[in-house]
Amino acid sequence: MDRDTNPLKKFVKGAWRFIDSARKVTINLLFLLIAIALLSMLFSSDAPKIAKTTALVIKPTGQLVEQLTAKTFDAMVDEARGVKIVETLLKDVIDAIDAATDDDRVQVLVLNLNSFSGARLTKLQDVANAITQFKSSGKKVIAISDSYGQDAYYLAAYADEIIMHKMGGIALEGFGRYRMYYKEGIDKLGLDVHIFKVGTFKSAVEPYQRDEMSEYAKAANEEWLGDLWQIYLNDVAAARGLELEALNQYAQEFPKLVAQANGDITKAAVDFGLADQALSRVEARQYLISLVGENDETHSYNKVGLVDYLKTIKSDRFGRKAKGDKVAVVVARGTILDGTQPAGTIGGDSTAALIRKARNDDAVKAIVLRVDSGGGSAFASEVIRRELEKARADGKPVIASMGSVAASGGFWISTSSDQIWAHPSTITGSIGIFGIIPTYQKPLAKHLGIRVDGISTAPLAGIRLDRELPPEIGDTIQTMVEQGYREFLQRVADSRGMTTEQVNDVAQGRVWSGEDAYKHGLVDNLGSLDDAVAAAAKLADLDDDYVVSYIEKEEKFQEKIVRELLAGAINASNQSSTSISPLNKMLRQVEQAVADFGALNDPNHTYVLSNIETD
How far apart are alpha carbons 75 and 85 in whole angstroms? Predict the structure, then answer.
């Protein structure tokens, strides 16, 4: 074979090989530098420097949650589209405030509520209890925010001083329950949505059947919303030193009070006693400097944030490395789906696996299931319930601790426990069951001229979403739903020491506040997660030196890297607020409703799902 002896060609080939090698080396070096940086972020234990006199700044962003939503690939795609999940872990906030209570360096607790989008009452009450304990040490609590929404104001009410911006306001909108209803739209599209349900008050499927809320749903919603509003008013009025009637008046007569203040909503709030001072950000900063001193570098007040402060307290806050007797806490937050699911969603298999892990750990002497769920798959709920039942059979006490929501499937999984605890403001009950199957053969035929036909050897083979649902199959599903409801009643009756008739009287899909659920015998005690943990320890005859250990799915190394890589970008983007147009907000609500519907994956198409969101 002839060899190419052209000097120019030889030079070009040699140069290209050099460039290609240099490119590979450069890429490898960049990858190595990124890996080192990520490892540094993951395992760095450098504690922040804290001044001798400082303020701990608690600035929750987004929603307060019992469990952070896992950063899945789908979540990353959503964030790239601008649909962000912004959350703050409730336990982080409480642990930081608790630690600061006995920290002589921390003289002031600052609640910066500008980025806080809200939480349900149970979570607000847990933080409020921590704030109250902090104040008992003689230290000062300051709430600052440009404006205060209802949830933010609940926390602010527990502060010694409430500071708002000179152009800010305070909105107490009360509690409401509004939903989108799709019946007319479904009819226009020609869809057939087959609904199978039991329970007069089971309103989760109403949007697919009606164009407005039923009178039954209105009556039930009015009762539990009224209970929660009364709890809110009682707590805030007591914390702020206001008359309950006056606080309610501010909410009911807000337009009138603003008119009396000549449209100045800031003046309306301050005059009514809801805030102590209206200051600019510069004035607020100077005021805080006067309390804890000035930082020479930032020229702001001496402060430490939540994330940095957590680095200074004990590393094993979740009790995963501790030795000795343990009470295991398994958090079940989100919609209950079949199979293995990421954190922030309850998987029948994945949550059962966590319970099984606790059951098989000899150091674990009792299990607390912390439920924050409006329900979901009946099949997955039963998988979880059976795993708890096995733990009890093995001699380990089980306590169900209801968080903000433990309704329908959330109640189902709570029934296999020695005791059920709920907060007074927990939303629970919704003991009912439904099935739902949409078919779209009509719009296919009408608009596209597409029809489906064929033969099968048995009826089930012909069931498709693009074909009409055979009536006998519909009857079968309704029978299955009715049987599921009877099973649900029996589960509750066995758990509560009631007859199925007694349970049926308070079931029928009706939602109750924790307070009313306690009166009706659906829960054993009213109290917090800490109360439930103490009760579990007592049932297990543990001494006071037991450890509370959170059992969670172990995060893979790759997942840690992805989480840390995303954290910086997400936190940076959270610093700036983006306005969302009303149209975009409405479209996102529709998109979320479709996504929620599409995620339901019960193998039997039967669901124990309430119409109450978890967060």
Answer: 8
Tokens of 201: 């008050």
Convert the pLDDT of each residue in 159-188 to its tens digit.
999 999 999 999 999 999 999 999 999 999
pLDDT of residue 583: 46
**Neighbouring C-alpha atoms within 13 Å toward the C-beta of 352:** 20
Options 59, 139, 197, 202, the catalytic residue: 202
User: Is 408 an active-site residue?
Assistant: yes
For residue 455 the two structure tokens come to 């033969």
Is 71 one of the annotated active-site residues of the chain? no
589: Cβ contacts below 8 Å, ≥ 6 apart: 180
Q: What is the pTM for the complete model shown? A: 0.84
| E-state strands within 514-601 | 525-526, 547-550
Catalytic residue among 147, 203, 373, 408: 408
Distance CA 120, CA 69 (A): 17
Decide the pairing of beta strands 326-333 and 547-550. parallel
Query: What is the residue-wise DSSP string for 265-325?
Result: HHHHHHHTTS-SEE--HHHHHHHHHHHH-B-TTTSSB-EEEHHHHHTTS-S-TT-SS--S-
Judge whether residue 238 has pLDDT over 70: yes
Q: Does residue 536 contact residue 368 with C-beta atoms inside 8 Å? A: yes
CB 53, CB 302: distance < 8 Å: yes
